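Annex B, item 7. Sequence and structure tokens for protein A, then protein B.
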Amino acid sequence: MGEIQTSICRFCHAHCGIKVEVEDGRAVRVHGDKDNPVYHGYSCAKGRALPETLGHPNRLRSSMKRLEDGRFESIASERAMDEVAERIQSILERHGPRSVALYHGTYAAFYPASMPLANSWMREIESPMIFTSATIDQPGKPIATALHGRWQAGPYLFDEADAWMLVGSNPLVAMSNGIPNSNPARHLHRAKKRGLKLIVIDPRVTECAKAADLHLQPRPGEDPTIIAGLIHVIIREDLHDAAFVAENTAGFEALREAVAPFTPEYVGRRADIPADQLIHAARLFATARRAGANAGTGPNMSGRGSLTEYLMLALQTICGDWLRAGEDFTNPFTLLPAYTPKAQPDPPYPAWGYGEKLRVRGLTDAACGLPTAALADEILLEGEGQVRALICVGGNPMAAWPDQNKTHAALSSLDLLVTIDPKMSATARQADYVIAPKIQLEVPGLSLINEALWFYGVGLGYPAPYAQYTPARVDPPPGSDLIEDWAFFYGLAQRMDLRLRLDVTHAWDAGASGPQWVDLDMKRPPTTDELFAHLLHGSRVPLEEIKQHAHGAIFGEPTQAVQPRDADCEARLELGNAVMLGELSEVSAEPPVRDPDYRFRLVSRRLPDVLNSCGHDIPRLTRDYRYNPAFMNPVDLEALGLESGDVVEIRSDHAAILGIVEPAPDVKAGVISMTHCFGDAPDEGGDVRSIGSNTGRLTPVERDYDRYTGIPRMSAIPVNVRRNDGPLPA
């Protein structure tokens, strides 16, 4: 038996505490750490597969360079940085700063030094063109918070709530939204045992829906309709917290008027749910002493995600489901600066219309960031300001971005495409340079991302003032030439005579004193631990103290009292934002069922053993399916004359993909359920039975999109289905 080391899994944002069995510098076995005070030994299949992830035969051992004939050859990382720096400098001189763009994928956030160094480099070349996966996942959350305002003390936590509502969210699989991701099944079991009432609104009978006290199974894409209906019932029946609304909000009467058309009968017909179930859900939620509600990726990707998230906050607010003065605030701040919770609002702030103005569709920088769905057009649109170089970190645009055909055309047209990727992904195969990184247990890590998510939405963050640090626990593969993500940008800066400065977490608090950034020594490369120390300057608990607890720890008292409202506080939470309520009026004016020629709705789903495009090639994670089946209700399969394993053409009004149907009684009739981020690039013609299909190909970016975040409809997509016995038609 090898040496047992504690660490942090970074396969997803849950960042579970784990134990790693190490032999000769290699991870041979991974399991949950029972001595971790938050995770209590929990781990999932993805984390337990880390040895296969680190040692995968297809993993790059060195960086790669594309040759003129399209083949790739190995290149030393130092030489790759030389060449990339030279080419970027040339592009900047010819086309200006805006010609260089940066894309952070999901995995960039799991390595705390990566995004700060990359963003610092972009700042030094004076390019504003920074894009992230946050704008193609749940961008409505920061938009809604900006328009509504934030309650300083935060919401009630799942572990202390009497009722909870999940809308298009399945945290037992997604490890996000509502139920704490530190063993969500355990948290749910304990909550149900003490009497929590769980309401789930989802077109699938998900793992969470199976545990629900009430499950509404609607037609996909009707999330704003349903939430407006819930608010309608609560106001009509005087179930709202009138005192809280009067003291802390503005716009209540405008909200009342806006939801007036959304009667239970109207919502029931439109969303295909029983009206009495909607009424029951409203009463169950509003009469709970403490309640919480959150929406997931599904509603954010289904059209009008910003509106849905805004209505979710309005629902929470009219019921007064925010921590009050004297109640216990379960302090999540450890790696972040100390925080004093107060029972008062922070007022609304600009949600869009500032910063960089994009050249397409009137889109601007926004609370969620620059709209990634517009980046392909920013690359393809000729003229001043055209993006000509793109660096991707921790992401796979060919799999993740909407409108895959346009994405492929855009990436293929770039003067320079660089991606930091451990494998030759669909994006890497389009790149000029593929920088091979150290990953997971090969680099130090922190639990920072999970803690910081508290600011992102209801039901996120740690349920305790917890933190963990891990050093690197294993060696890179023998004979490899790998670098950390941040080191690539530091290396570019050195070669381009740039000075980098690192923003610190202290700066997140607008009222904080002390340094807001640290100037890096550009002659002596820092260590990752030194970067962590800079990042955490001003944290409530010093990094050195956190390092003393190998299993992670809860630092300080688990709760503190919420402070009363400041005597001079006049801020209000906004319930009547004119833009959002105007959009709600548009919803009520829409026909109940759109696109009658496309009678099915394709919805996105999460799978338990993969994350986006990661894990597809690990056998132990894909025992059931190496592809993404098109799950359909057996009634629909019978009506179409289809059987399990049949290949079908799934066509939107934009494009078509192939799918392999599988019966799924848990899927509502008229719905197709597939996961995203599968498949090859459009010109690669991969076998659908081995790699699946990319649902992003079905979605155009220039229509039916959120006008603030730019995200098009990536779920609840109207499609038709027919058997396919040959190649995919054009």
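Protein B:
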Amino acid sequence: MNRNQAAIRVRELKNAINEHNTKYYVLNSPDISDFEFDILLQELATLEKKFPDLLTGDSPTQRVGSDISREDVNFRSYPHKYPMLSLSNTYSREELLEFHNRIVKTSGKDIAYVCELKLDGTAICLTYREGRLFRALTRGDGTVGDDVTRNVLRIKSVPLELKPAGASGIPYPSEFEIRGEILMPFSSFRELNALREENGEPLFANPRNAAAGTLKLLSADEVEKRGLDCFLYHVVTSIPGLETHWQALETASAWGFQVSAHRKLCRDTHEVMAFLDHWETARTSLPVATDGVVVKVNDFALQRTLGMTAKSPRWATAYKFKAEQAATRLLSVDFQVGRTGAVTPVANLEPVLLSGTTVKRASLHNADQIALHDIRTGDTVYVEKGGEIIPKVVGVDLSSRPTGTFPFEYITHCPECGTLLERDPQEAKHFCPNRWECPPQIKGRIAHFMSRKAMNILGGEALVEQLFSKNLVTDPSGLYYLTPEVLSSLENWGDKSTGNLLRSIEASKQVPFHRFLYALGIPFVGETTAKYLASHFRSVQELSKASAEELTEAPEIGEKIAESIREYFQHPRIALMLEKLRASGLPFEQSAGEANRISDSLEGKKFVVSGQFTRSREEIKKLIETHGGKVLSTVSANLDFLLAGEKTGPAKMQKASKTGIPVISETDFLKMIGEMPATGTLFETKKPDSLFEL
């Protein structure tokens, strides 16, 4: 077979394999066996190996590839062309009718709606160029998302190459975005957690968290094993000929995208309510998680007329289902001690299926709630999971209470260290006051210090447990004295893990001052409060020496927080820890750039600025710094964006292209920092662009 013959056969095989993938994963109607499919795939791989120039990135064989390292991918961030925002929610049908009445008042005519199940997964934005998958971005912060294309390639329901217009008659444009949800079906979730339990790994709380975590795996093979699925529901880009949302969904389906079959075009509110009535109960039979129904105005022209508020579109809303409940038996109660010393009672339950997952444990909140419901061991209790990470007990079936039970007696001493518990009359929870000796409090503070929003040091609870149990780290300062030799003593800890951890520890020395304050874990000092303190006091020394009166002069700092800060810095252990952290090079004062910071929207992002702009280059650089970014002089692999104006040097452009660095315009940049409305003129055009993640 010569090259021309091979090229024809490769094209035939690609088309056939893509079609069979669609039939199997999207339509659930395969017409060939797995063996026959594998033969086609093997033939394609053989031809691509023989004629390497015929291998393209959209080939079905590229769903299968080698694992990648963080250094290779680093899940590079890219700005969203349009921000990925959220819908307003309601649990009330009365509010839903009010939503309808407002639209009628504006339009003065009958309204048709499209009702779709609100799938509970992780949002994804797919970009296609010339009918081929080009990039897949996570929601991120809504403005900038992480590139997870390599992993999305392994999701079989995501088409690598689109079908022609087909029955819709509307061709896909040369480039467009489509958004939707990546889900982990209940069956895959149960299998994954069963395997993790067998291996002694922490379990995922729900399918949504499992799907989000899977998208960030370094092993693409592992991604494929976890059986993710993808449903698309929002064509973002204006496409001539598409005049309604229903038409857009039908057209997307004709191009090869998987759209939910559980959708309905409703001509009036009676049909909308009927759709809600049906799925209030029918949702329990679905193979994937759903938590409501999205109601959208069907007509694109009317969507543009209605426009949006500052946070959400006026033409769509999400009706949230009431939380599902299940009844099961309370076997026993454990008590967990958190980072702050708060003690939480946790129910051990007979396993029960709830929202697609098996629930064995649930929160009992506090002593007051236990007394309010008169919860007793052996009771049949009602468990609810309405969007909560941890299921909660919300009531008792008193009619089925067994004989011989006794009122629950709340513990008086810490289950971890034996210290007598205390309770502030104004607080619902009991607390262990042994802040500096109670093991879970110590480990909790270390884990908090390492967390992403604090110092962003790699590792999790398992690592903290090992470091603490071996007496290697007993407070956060110990992290900065770890060495490769010390880390080699840890179980299942190799050279690569050691290198990644030590690099992240070193990088943590560059975090902004307010994040360092937050990382210290001062009681009642969250992210926002830490920013106020950093701006007002500018250094740890200033803050630690401030009187109660001086503290309350800072924005949002009341007497309770002021007292907590004073107590924190007066403790001798804190003084010793801070001295060690200072010696390690941690940011003990606010930098000049931070002092003038406007926002954290560009925090951690590195830019090279080149070319001519509508404002001076120095002003552009200052804007980057005041929004938390850094300006570099040269294009390198660790750069996040090349901000290119007119007459940008060709060498910089070429190097950015070669290294895969995103090139953004001044307009793109201004959208990222919020100086230019993300909507632009979209609602002024005749085309149905939409900016919202629905």
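Comment on protein B: The chain is about 35% helix and 20% strand.
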